[in-house]
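Deviation from plan, reported transparently: LZUJQKHR complex.
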Amino acid sequence: MTSIGIYGSLGRMGQAIAAAAPGMSARVAGGADVKDDPLAIAAAADVLIDFSAPQALEAHLAAARAARKPIVIGTTGLLPQHHALIDAAAREIAVLQTGNTSLGIGLLQRLVREAAARLGPDWDIEIVEMHHRNKADAPSGTALMLGNAAAAGMGTTLAEAEVTDRAGTIGPRSSGTIGLASLRGGSVVGDHSVVFATNGERIELIHRADDRAIFARGAVKAALWLAGKPAGRYTMDQVLGE
Ligand SMILES: NC(=O)C1=CN([C@@H]2O[C@H](COP(=O)(O)OP(=O)(O)OC[C@H]3O[C@@H](n4cnc5c(N)ncnc54)[C@H](OP(=O)(O)O)[C@@H]3O)[C@@H](O)[C@H]2O)C=CC1
Ligand SMILES: O=C(O)C1=N[C@H](C(=O)O)C[C@H](O)C1
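Because the crystal trials were delayed, the predicted structure below was used instead.
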């Protein structure tokens, strides 16, 4: 049975992963005595899963490298310096980073990319996400993934196209941009809508997560897939079979 070490084990996702693991031929490594010790968690596990916070990533990656254990990173709000750390770690160990471990978002990314490519520049693209009141980062990691997919379909990058701050006298919408809007409230697990709008018609692609168990099962699936893989940076698409 594969033993999984969880970083962020007492959080919402950490608890959901611990609940999902036994039904998927996995067990959670370590006990309460190692919960604050990244190295002890890494030493006790076959594979690691991190759903914590960006500021903890460096220590968690260092522990994974020291123990030579693969790691799935679900933490969002990552900055370019965090991706540089992940790239460096992936030269020594297997690393899979994703802003969403659900099955549905993998498919939605492909649909968004294709729609953006086929519809062309007369269609405006807006992404709306809503999450629970305690979410730390905005836009969500998933909204950024969907934005990247839309930008790829448009033949550009999200860095070039994104608009996240609309307020005041903003004037007409610039063609070729991708708007991202974040709503926060209540206990919403995770809703994402991608709106394609042109004169007189509109297409909306929507994913709603009702239960964190979908993310937890995807994370455990990714961890079982990653265990034993050689060093490298892997994607959720690879886990789901392209
Ligand atoms: N990829 C995906 O599919 C999903 C990703 N996420 C992302 O996962 C992350 C966690 O989400 P969620 O479980 O809801 O958040 P929670 O706030 O419920 O849990 C975060 C956990 O991380 C720990 N933590 C926070 N800061 C640190 C730190 N500096 N060092 C060590 N541990 C720390 C917390 O411990 P303590 O309370 O003791 O500080 C807590 O146990 C977020 O980035 C979220 O966006 C969430 C859902 C799905
Ligand atoms: O913080 C959350 O809760 C979630 N975070 C991820 C994100 O930022 O996209 C995934 C999911 O939507 C829930």
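The radius of gyration is 19 Å. We consider this an acceptable substitute for the interim report.
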